[in-house]
Amino acid sequence: GNGQPPAPTAPPGRPQGERLQLLLRRSREAKNCAYCPYSRFPVGAALLTAGGEIFSGCNVENACYSLGVCAERTAIQKAISEGHTSFRAMAIASDLGDDFIVPCGACRQVMREFGTDWDVYLTKADGTYIVKRLEELLPLSFGPEDLKK
């Protein structure tokens, strides 16, 4: 070995180094799969599970506009359908040059279903990013625990 202790399978806190770069890259790659003939606004998302797996998604539009789905929800639904419900981080990518891409309100609420204490990496087309906690993106939120009161 290299003298280093083995890395835990699900390290707590934010993804670092190569893991973070992989998450960001997977969001950019997912953007290239976007089906967006109406908005021409491709978005990609990559979701990191507590177990260290990454699920990516893109926006998928429909001629019946209201049936379209965002990249963030696509990634979450893929993860859920594979048995994952605990998430650590999501990276979101678009072609916006001057602004960081942000999730819509519907996506923020779907993300909120799975907790408020995970990170969302908002990127620009040049790869720069800022990181926000989900609770910062959706303050005073309503979630599953509110239905138990």
Automatic annotation (TrEMBL):
InterPro entries, alphabetized: APOBEC/CMP_deaminase_Zn-bd (IPR016192), CMP_dCMP_dom (IPR002125), Cyt/Deoxycyt_deaminase (IPR050202), Cyt_deam_tetra (IPR006262), Cytidine_deaminase-like (IPR016193)
Q: What does this protein do?
A: This enzyme scavenges exogenous and endogenous cytidine and 2'-deoxycytidine for UMP synthesis.
Active-site residue list: E72 (proton donor)
Signal peptide boundaries? none
PANTHER family, alphabetized: CYTIDINE DEAMINASE
Query: Which gene specifies this protein's sequence?
Result: Cda
Q: Which reaction does it catalyse?
A: 2'-deoxycytidine + H2O + H(+) = 2'-deoxyuridine + NH4(+); cytidine + H2O + H(+) = uridine + NH4(+)
GO BP of this protein: nucleobase-containing small molecule metabolic process; pyrimidine-containing compound metabolic process
Q: GO cellular component terms?
A: cytosol
Task: Report any Pfam family annotated for this entry.
Answer: dCMP_cyt_deam_1
Q: What is this protein called?
A: Cytidine deaminase
NCBIfam families from the xrefs? Answer: cyt_deam_tetra, PRK05578.1
Q: Which organism is it from?
A: Steatornis caripensis (Oilbird)
